[in-house]
Every structure is written in structure tokens, then in C-alpha cells.
Amino acid sequence: MSSIPFPRGSDPALGLRTLVIGAGAAGSALVRDLHRAPEFGLAPVGVLDDDPAKAGREIDGIAVLGTLAQLTDLAVEHRAQVVALAIPGLPHHRVRELATAAAAAGAAVRYLPSFLAALRREVVGSDMRTLDVNRLIGRHEVHVVSPDVRAVIEGRRVLVTGAGGSIGSELCRQVHAFDPSALYMLDHDESNLHRLQLEIWGEALLTDDSLVIADIRDRPRIQQIFRDLKPEVVFHAAAHKHLPLLERHPSEAVKSNVLGTDNLVEAALDTGVERFVLISTDKAADPTSVLGASKRLAELIVQANARDARNLGTGVFSAVRFGNVLGSRGSLLSVLEEQLRSGSPVTITHPDVTRFFMTIEEAVGLVLEAGRMAEGGEVFVLDMGEPVRIVDLVHNFAEQVQLGAEDVEIRYTGLRAGEKLNEALFSEGEERLPTAHARILATVAGGSAGPEDLAGGLTGLYEAAAVNADAEVRDRLADLLPGYRAPEADPVPALSAPYPDGF
Hints:
The chain is built from 17 helices and 21 strands. It is of the alpha/beta class. It has two domains: 111 residues, Rossmann fold (3-Layer(aba) Sandwich); 297 residues, Rossmann fold (3-Layer(aba) Sandwich), CATH 3.40.50.720. Strands 9-8-7-10-11-12-17-21-20 form a nine-stranded mixed beta sheet, with helices on both faces. The chain has a six-stranded mixed beta sheet with strand order 3-4-2-1-5-6, with helices on both faces. Helix 11 packs parallel to helix 12 and helix 12 packs across helix 17. The longest helix has 23 residues. The N terminus and C terminus are likely disordered.
């Protein structure tokens, strides 16, 4: 594709290439505001409108390129990374159609009027995605997903596990935009599935095969689903993920995160799945928690079977590691917003604790790109720059919702068992490999149990978890993952509030 010049005020260094939908008052105001507030991270490259007579006009130097019906084609042509919907009062079904068209071009979607209010400093805490994300995560948001993903999904039967969760539901919405022949959404929570079907299709009759109620721990049920539905692409997002709970209930972590993954991988191999992507966590790198250990074992299961599949010339199995995802259910921002709204103290484990953060758009884009780029056995990681001090993120968040330091009380609780002061994206023994995407790295991760040791060790681990022998489960996790040891409780004691060098 030939290089497209940037319109006036659209230096790509200022942010993501953005198409604005709507050439009326709201859209015009948005274009002007984006030019005045480049630190927000969006650079307008064109405007679309439902009135064809407006084509060819300019708004603050940005051309009206065409109509809404041309959204997908124009987003691809102009390499749009974000589509901002700026037509107030647009019917819900039209919003859904435009969001689908944007996703088909590999673009994320932002909305007005709340988005415009954010630029005018009228942010409300409940509107997470109106915040200046670049300031919160300490770097520019990265556009990850490309239109080339369509070749992996279009016309294929796709299964998403954990479909009702934050990542799973966003995956389903974006996969749907790439025209799979079937989209199967698997979750054990029927209410989440009902809500998701309503969001994607505008109705939820609950009478077709797209919704699958199942527990990934149930091996016969998973085998039945794969035999009957014959998925060709699988995105595995189902997991337990709350670190402190899993420290207290390690058998449950093993049943869902390890055995559940094993069940899915076995069924995928048996039925000839073309591509399988596991969603993991940065806590799997040199794990110190049950959560990290269970997800590291899930990665090893995928990698061991990827070698077998590669030798047989069958499916491609890979994994992705996430940092903390902003905007997901139970994420830091949602908890922080609730605490500020209620007037409760903001709880932080330690003043020096850091984490890697990413947006839901980045997370889902990483999953889709991993499915496209994988050759088998890789663990993909988004290059997220430097980790962010959580206390700095709280500070930035408070400023954006118009709160001063005196309005925020911070209470330090101390690191909990299994938590690290600083996370890492790779284990010490893992090699960082470049990929076709400049901001995505990969590793083939070694240094843990080999395939034979892994298979034998997993049998004993599953047997211990089945009878809820938590102490034995911890010991067997340590046997399977040299270097992992169950941490002592309260590794860093709680600190008094306010901390001397805090907010």
C-alpha cells in the first residue's frame, strides 16, 4: 500500500490515526478538540458523514472522505486505528453496524458525547474509556490488530471460551466483525452469555448453537462440544484470575487454569483445530503465586502439544501474556472509581509497587495478531515499555476526574502472599524474539519440565486437586516448576497511612 500523507495537525507521533464519524457540530468540535489536545493520543486523518453532499469539505484541515457505507474500505485505505462515532442520537442498531464495520478494518471504536465531554475536562469516573489512557499507562497506546486477521477468521468456525468475561466478550465482538462462518461463545454463566448475545446481535432468543454453557473442567463435555461443533479456531480466555483468592484455594486454580486448558488442548488436537490461542498473564513469568504457577503450566501444556501438532503437520498452538488490563471487570480502574465515588480510602498494596498496564483494545488485538502470526509454541507478549507505579496511576486518574490530592486518602495494605513488588514480562531464562509486529515480542520459553516429566507430574497434580489437598497441590506445583515455591504469608507488611512520600 502506498504511503498516505498526514493531513494538517495529524502528525502520527501524536497518536493513533483516527476517522471521525459525523461532519456535524459534534464531529467538527471533536476534530478541533483533537487538534488542540494532541496529548490525548488521537490524530484525525479523515471524517465520514451520512450526507454524501458533505464529501470533499474540510473541517479544520481534515477532509470529509465519504459516507458511512464506505467506513470499512476507507478505514483500511487510510490505515485508521481508531473510529470515533460523533453523531449524537444515532440509533443503537446503526451504532452496532458502524462498530462492526470499524472492527472489520482492524480499528478500535470510541464514542460521543461522553468522549467529547472528556476532552473538555468534564470527565466522570464511570466513563473509563474517556480518560487520557496514555497518561495512565505511561506510554502511547499501541494499535495491534491488523486487517490481515480476517484471513484467519473469515469463513471459519470460531470458539471463544470465557466468552462472558471482559476480554472474552470483546474478543467475540471483534471476531464477529471478521465474518466467521460460526461464532461459538462458551461460558458457564448463562446470564453473561445472554447479555453478550444481546449486545452482538441486538436480540437474545437463546435458541441457536452460538451460546454454549459448559465448564471447561468437564472433559467429556468439552470433548462432546468439539466433536459436535468442530471449531477451527479457538481463543481460550476462561480462567480464574484473582491472585489472593487462588492463594487460598490452589486446588480451584489447578482445576480451571491447568486441567481446563489441558481438556481444551486435548479436544482441539483430537478434532483437528487449525489455531488455538491461550490467554495467559505476565504473572506466569518466574511465578511466585498459585495464579502465576497455574498459568505457567497452562503455557507449558500448550507448548508441549504445539510440538506434537507441528510434527504431525496439524494445528498451530500458541499463547499470549497480558499485563493488567484497564477497563476489565475487577480491574484497578473499576475498583479505584468505586472507592473514589464512595469516599472510601484508595487501597494500594505498597507505595513502590509497579505493574504493566494495557487497554482492552491492545489485549484483544494481541490475541488476534497472535492467532495470525503464530507458527506453533510461541508465547507472545506486547512490548509495554516501562512498568507504571500504581500510586502514580492513582494520581493521574484523580487529576483527570478533577480531584485534588487533599480529596484522596490512600491506605497501604502491604503486599499479599504471592504478589510481586514488580512484575516481569519474561522469565530470566527466556529469550526475547522479534516478530513481524514491531511492538510484539515472542519467546519459546524453556527451562521447565520436559514433555514426559510434565505429563507425569500433571497426573499427580490433578489427583491432589480433585480431593482438594491444597498443601499437596502447592508441593506438586513446586515440583513441576523449578524455582517456584509457595511464598510465606504477608511478604511485605502493611504500612501506615498516609505514607510519608505518598500522594
